[in-house]
Amino acid sequence: MRQLPPLNMLRVFEEVARHRSFSQAAVGLNVTQGAVSRQIKQLEDYLGIALFVRTPQGLSLTQAGMALSPHLSDAFDHIERAMQAVRVPNLRQRLRILAPPTWATRWLSAHLRGFCERYPDINLSVTHQSSHDNLAEIDCQIRFGLEPATHCNSELLVMERHIAVASPELFEGDHPPDLRRFPLLHILHDGKRLKVWENWIAAMGREDIEADQGLEFSTLDQVIHTTLAGGGLAVIDRQMIERELANGSLLPITPVEVIGPYGYWLDVPGDKQGLSKVRLFTQWLNQVSNP
Fold first, then answer.
1. 187-214, pLDDT tens digit by residue?
2. Which CATH number applies to 159-259?
């Protein structure tokens, strides 16, 4: 008979070792921090040795903890693969994702073929906030913002990379359009203008341009289509207009690029982090977002 402690103790240890945090492990396991602490104490009592030590920099693994951690991770990986191998082959899973409309249309759609080919047994359902009544059904959310969420596991996928662009018809030969001559196109977020023009103008060192003039739109897609039609100039995340930059339907006004401060975040509720479909999507998303 195998001499093993309860598997839940080992699962808790693996989660704490990965995050180096009792509180983050508690969120991932959907339990209290006290429950995590008790499980670790019971495992240390079982082994007769400390697995973690608190330092001024945070929680660290002891030598014994460092020796145990990779073996347990490998063991749980083997268990998961074994379960996947014997489950009903055609049992399809539905992964429900909440995402900004423009990001879903312009970035996710362009990359989804790779995910579907790699994981044919996972069906995706991609919706946006206003079209989803029950947020409890959502497995993960892509969120546009400045900082991580505090109520769930939140990680930065990619920062925006802003460039100023215009339709080729506004160029005069090789000369870019005059920023003072054409309307500046602005994007609204939560009812307020994003200060992408202000940040770009500051990076250019221009003091002769009024950043607050121009037209406002509620979605980035509206800004992009207006720019394509020659209706004005826009500062846009270049990752959202890769196709237009490649085919020349939008041209950079200058090479200046401004990173951030906004980015796209992946938020996963604590009770969803253990799902294999969420883990696989998270891994894939990180790979394609940061090639």
1. 888 888 888 889 888 888 887 788 788 8
2. 3.40.190.10
The β-bridge relationship of strands 122-127 and 233-237 is unpaired
pLDDT tens, residue by residue, 21-70:
888 888 777 788 888 899 999 999 998 999 999 888 888 999 999 999 98
Give the separation between CA 88 and CA 77, rounded to whole angstroms. 19
- Hey, which CATH number is domain 93-153+264-289, 3.20.20.70, 3.40.190.10, 1.10.357.10, 3.60.10.10? 3.40.190.10
Predicted TM-score (pTM) of this structure: 0.63
Note whether 185 and 234 are within 8 A (CB). Answer: yes
- Strands (E) across the chain are located at 52-55, 58-61, 93-98, 122-127, 140-145, 153-166, 184-189, 192-193, 215-217, 233-237, 251-252, 258-268
CATH architecture of 7-86: Orthogonal Bundle (1.10)
Query: Using only C-alpha atoms, what is the Rg of the chain?
Result: 24
